[in-house]
Amino acid sequence: MRVVIADVQVPFIAGGGEALAQGLVRACREAGHETEIVSLPFRFTPDSEVARTMLAWEAENLDDLNGYSPDVVVCLRFPAYYLSHHRKVVWLLHQHRALYDLWDASAEKAAEREALRERVVEKDTFYLSRAERVYTIAGNVSRRLEKFNGLSSTPLYHPPPMNGKLYSAAAEAYIFAPSRLEAHKRQELLIRAAQHLRAPVAILISGGGGQRPQYERLVEELGVGDRVRLVGRLSENELAAYYACSLGVFFGPFDEDYGYVTLEAMLARKPVITCKDSGGPLEFVIHDETGFVVDPTPEAIAAAIESLYASRRRAVDLGAAGYSRYQAMGVLSWQGVVSELIRTLETGIGG
Fold this sequence. Notes:
Layout: E1 2-9, H1 16-30, E2 34-41, H2 47-58, E3 72-75, E4 88-92, H3 110-129, E5 133-136, H4 139-149, E6 154-155, E7 174-178, H5 187-193, E8 202-206, H6 212-222, E9 228-232, H7 236-244, E10 248-250, H8 260-267, E11 272-275, E12 291-294, H9 298-310, H10 312-328, H11 334-347
Parallel strand pairs: 1-2, 1-3, 3-4, 4-5, 5-6, 7-8, 7-10, 8-9, 10-11, 11-12
């Protein structure tokens, strides 16, 4: 059958969303479906560009693409799900978070943006409610959808990009933190935690992103260059090795949608240190059972690191429990994800 994956693209910025889209396309093709991505560029600013992109997707009717009609369209991100098609399924990564859970009513020009915010909530509710079925990538995204739009949805957990490539090895004295270097990923907390560490534990932070210059300056200002290293982007083999030999993994973003890092750490049988307001990781990390859930402060993060170093046996046990937790959480294979999404079409299940 013909499947279209509808998504947006932010040129030169690649993250979990892009990995998910490519994984879904690959899995659909492996299942024998003729599959294509249909995308339009997305601009975060100015607000007029957000509104223009909304109109562009509303004008798209994918029931006829040069004589070829897709059997099903799977929409991923705002506002791709505004398009028209007779069998439209949504697998929601997230909405336009700046106008939802990250909305700041005290920010400059917030009053001027209120009209756009109201319009987006109204349009989202309208188009999502008319999809054949709405899935999300995690319970955290489903909770937001219920809170802001009053819509129910089904979390559909999928494997992280490094699934099948991870392994575990004897732990060395370092904490690993792989992720894009962006403010909301909060690597700054980990860098500042280095000031409070007494144990001889290093901190290795991988990834690229807009915050790298700021983090480099912070490392220098705090005088923790002997303990904290920004190791840049890693190959898949390097990434697997860094996971495998770590004492534990830090992933403490603010209200993450899902969080591949959490899942990859668990597949590598490593304990995860996350924060009480980190969102998606809290669906997997159980405090003092599969890792540590701590206050989002440098002091609390340092204490968790100290605890892992003080008891290596305990760190191994937490990592093993994390692996078992992953297996019990119902994370589907990519084949399972495709079967679930396409099942909606084949059985005619309504939304």
